[in-house]
């Protein structure tokens, strides 16, 4: 999904007091990050860089600012380390929502994606949410949503970290005090495994996801449309010009939305197709074949991305019914990002596992086909969402 360009205000530099550590002699991560560049105090809470790794050359760096993935390093076909996600190399840029707004790598909540007209109905009452996207609510309110909150580090090992967050009743208009966790684990098979969990004391909506932007080519200074994509979905949900689903569920067959066979993204980029024209690329929800009879199969590949340049294959697994796929349509802002690189438009692909966009509205309206995407969570219930990114090296693209 697109960056929140021009929509994020307020958290920023005024509340940030940076540590006075000497960074000249700090040991860099494999991805070239300086951990001290992430040491800060924001609104009285400490931020830091967490490094996870395994014995097979995989390294994942995260910060508790927004529960964000900052870098993912995996070996390429020449066994050379490649950083495959976009981001910044310092906390200042992540926190500066005016000059460098982004959702890079964030743990999104309480509701990922859009809610039409910024309102929901819970327990028979209408709640008005913070509008931050053309009158609609996007990613839980944007700069005051979870992607710009400081997560507590509940537990940490060499290969795993648990972020926790308590969101207050009324936060950005949402009902209920929510206690949420996001557990990131680097596994021995080069999988970054992510588990989101939450509880509430009032009926509310929950829809968490990770928002990492992938470029597997090893050179994020160039467009990434030569990457080969696969999406295990027969149907998708068309959207209007404001990215709100129309309520229809359409077949991908015979359209540029059909990625049931691995295909270079460029080969499907047909701007005569209104859905691609409206979004200037892909920014849509696919209805995953891996979700059936009310249950998601998180052992079967939901989507994949492959780089013929590096041989790196990314496979995506989830128990969620939908996958929002975004192809960096609003990148290319000229902002210097990680290691000073200026990312061009269409440089990356984001896989957001989640409930269908605007599910709160569609569920209340009893829109046909949206019943499998119920985002409402009641007291006593537990929210559980699983997302996994598995990396390997292949000679050719596979599922």
UniProtKB/TrEMBL annotation:
Residues the record lists as binding beta-D-galactose: 113-114, 211-213, 283
Active site feature: 211, 352
GO cellular component, one term: cytoplasm
Protein EC: 5.1.3.3
Entry cofactors: Ca(2+)
CDD domains: galactose_mutarotase_like
InterPro entries in UniProt: Ald1_epimerase_CS, Aldose_1-epimerase, Aldose_1/G6P_1-epimerase, Gal_mutarotase_sf_dom, Galactose_mutarotase-like, GH-type_carb-bd
Highest rank taxon of the organism: Bacteria
Pfam families given in the database record: Aldose_epim (PF01263)
Keywords attached to this entry: Calcium, Carbohydrate metabolism, Isomerase
SUPFAM superfamilies referenced in this protein's UniProt entry, alphabetically: Galactose mutarotase-like
Pathway assigned to this chain's UniProt record: Carbohydrate metabolism; hexose metabolism
Reactions listed under catalytic activity: alpha-D-glucose = beta-D-glucose
An annotated GO BP: glucose metabolic process
Homology family: Belongs to the aldose epimerase family.
Complexes and interactors: Monomer.
Protein name per UniProt: Aldose 1-epimerase
